[in-house]
Amino acid sequence: MTRDDHRAADAADPLAICRAQFALPAGLLYLDGNSLGPLPHATVAAMTDMVERQWGQRLIRSWNEGWIDAPTRLGAKIAPLIGAHSHEVIVGDSTSVNLYKLLSAALRVDPQRRVILSEAGNFPTDLHVAEGAVAAVPGASLRVVDRSAIADALADDVAVLLLTHVHYKTAERFDMVALTRATHEAGALVLWDLSHSVGAVPVDLTAAGADLAVGCTYKYLNGGPGAPAFLYVAERWQDRLASPLSGWMGHVEPFAFTDAYAPSRGMKRWLAGTPPMLAMAALEASLDVWAGIDRHTVWEKSAALWTILADAGRAAGLECVTPADPAHRGSHISFRHPAAYAIAQALIARGVIGDFRDPDILRLGLTPLYLGHEDVWRAGEILRNVIADRSYTAPEYRQRQAVT
Ligand SMILES: Cc1ncc(COP(=O)(O)O)c(C=O)c1O
Ligand SMILES: Nc1c(O)cccc1C(=O)C[C@H](N)C(=O)O
């Protein structure tokens, strides 16, 4: 396909108008929105209003003018993106903390089931938090198996299967429907980490019959660095599970100021402390960008952008570790190369921001709201040049930074 073909695809692209909603630096090709999404213009205005008016002028009155309901209001805005009902999602804390809450609760459902089952090579925080959760429950343990062995490892001692739907390194995607069904047949609950799925691939937790989920909002949802995460509990579990972090915001009557804890009905019991309103304001503005955007259109465009980079990678002789079948992958593409770190640095020096994942993965995110076909084609051309002329072998590209 030629540059003109990609220009024609951009001209016909229903999502092309979304690009103007983001404050991306001119000339930059940003292929790292799967790690930190860019700043929406609306966020700047929302933060100004939050700081100057809501905090500055309205002060504590703002708690009754929209702040106290922010966790459930934002949860309701995320719900359609993950195929959940609005009363099944709440926003607060980090993905790591939310994982702890849900894993701890799931471990206490059936005393005969004390195992968290997960995937070797899952995103580290998922496994680290699972270690912490089992350490707090006598007799509990973490079982980690290869992704191909998950279904067979669903023994009768498993309390909860913890999986990241789209793998952070390879973009491999689990079959949510099939694995949820297999987990239920084995008598366990399933907890999906949707950090690399939400805003990227169409997710339907209700259709899959999923029990629990968490996910990150600073990647494809563009909520800002460290934006509060979300937590999902299917309605049928809401009265049966309780948070181990029984803070006052999860109390049925926080402003009764009682000594004894009694959990709220519904999703509010998953709150612990006071919501971080500055961060909530940024996230709400970015969620509003998603209102009215069809997730299937986003996914179709992602698949088209993926093919452009896959072709460039093939032409450059790179090994692609992301599945070619769109049904089995997420919205990034990863190439394995012994000099992946240096290649990522050489690309950054040429205005293409992607990232590197230890030890040998070059990862490029495809975010249809602000990347066009021609943009991705240009990134692919730059990638081909960097490989062909071996410019990545320059010594300055070997220097590792603290955050990669
Ligand atoms: C699969 C997955 N889970 C969780 C996280 C992050 O958790 P937290 O926001 O708590 O750092 C990430 C990325 O940072 C991730 O890729
Ligand atoms: N959360 C991050 C951070 O605080 C610093 C650097 C990167 C991140 C990330 O989000 C990493 C990301 N989850 C990943 O998939 O690799």
UniProtKB/TrEMBL annotation:
Its cofactor is pyridoxal 5'-phosphate. InterPro entries: Kynureninase (IPR010111), PyrdxlP-dep_Trfase (IPR015424), PyrdxlP-dep_Trfase_major (IPR015421), PyrdxlP-dep_Trfase_small (IPR015422). This is Kynureninase. SUPFAM superfamilies: PLP-dependent transferases. NCBIfam families: kynureninase. Keywords: Hydrolase, Pyridine nucleotide biosynthesis, Pyridoxal phosphate. Belongs to the kynureninase family. Its EC number is 3.7.1.3. Pathway: Cofactor biosynthesis; NAD(+) biosynthesis; quinolinate from L-kynurenine: step 2/3; Amino-acid degradation; L-kynurenine degradation; L-alanine and anthranilate from L-kynurenine: step 1/1. It comes from the Bacteria. Pyridoxal 5'-phosphate binds at T95, S96, F123, P124, T125, D126, T164, D193, H196, Y218, W248, T274. It comes from Sphingomonas aurea. Catalyzes the cleavage of L-kynurenine (L-Kyn) and L-3-hydroxykynurenine (L-3OHKyn) into anthranilic acid (AA) and 3-hydroxyanthranilic acid (3-OHAA), respectively. GO terms for molecular function: kynureninase activity. It holds the Pfam family KYNU_C. The modification N6-(pyridoxal phosphate)lysine is found at K219. PANTHER family: KYNURENINASE (PTHR14084). It catalyses: L-kynurenine + H2O = anthranilate + L-alanine + H(+); 3-hydroxy-L-kynurenine + H2O = 3-hydroxyanthranilate + L-alanine + H(+). Homodimer.
